[in-house]
Design brief:
The chain is mainly beta and about 190 residues long. It has a single domain (about 45-185), classed as Jelly Rolls (Sandwich), CATH 2.60.120.10. About 5% of the residues lie in helices and about 40% in strands. It contains three helices and 15 strands. The model has no long low-confidence stretch (mean pLDDT about 95).
């Protein structure tokens, strides 16, 4: 397992080692010891999956507010997505910066999303299955969306007319939301 630092503080791309032969392949998708060695000491408590039928479906930007903020380990099980994360932790060296990573069933990459980040993705294929490991349980009262096209981020999603949920259509800009996080290195990964 190769755990690669990104340009965003505390966010990592995970490239699993794939072992294959004439029967197919095997990979280790999570190893707590490897994560701890990389500085990611997380106890995941819930796994979630989503399905998006059409190419161009955009889900995001999402997070949960404190005290139910979540760190996530995300991957695309079927199809392909452009996965986007935004650091919105005030005081972070990468505050308001974002990265986009292609996650697909082909490349099997994963993305570790720290607490205090917004997360979203746009599907690059039809019939996408997406998986999330999270370190806190889903909390409807803490669930938030921020406008995917907020000019403060200037994210290039690569799609002009995305398919959106009602929740994401109505999502406020960051400045109009109650979403606030603060950067503290010691708490950012645990």
């Amino acid at each position: 397992m190769n755990i690669i630092k990104t340009s965003l503080a505390d966010a990592f791309i995970i490239e699993p080692k794939i072992f294959g032969d004439h029967r197919g392949w095997f990979m280790e998708s999570y190893n707590k010891n490897a994560f701890v060695e990389a500085g990611i000491d997380i106890d995941f408590v819930q796994d979630n999956r989503s399905f998006s039928q059409k190419k161009g479906t955009l889900r995001g930007l999402h997070c949960q507010t404190n005290p139910k903020c979540q760190a996530k380990l995300v991957t695309c099980i079927k199809g392909a997505v452009l996965d986007v994360i935004v650091d919105i932790r005030e005081g972070s060296p990468s505050y308001l910066k974002w990265i986009a990573v292609e996650l697909s069933e082909e490349n099997k990459k994963q993305l570790f999303v720290p607490k205090g980040f917004l997360h979203g993705f746009v599907t690059l294929t039809d019939d996408v299955e997406f998986s999330y490991k999270v370190d806190d349980y889903y909390s409807p009262e803490n669930d938030r969306s921020v406008c995917f096209c907020d000019e403060i981020f200037n994210i290039d999603w690569g799609v002009e007319n995305p398919i959106l949920s009602e929740k994401d259509i109505k999502a406020p800009k960051l400045c109009d939301s109650d979403v606030r996080f603060f950067y503290e290195r010691a708490e950012s990964l645990t």
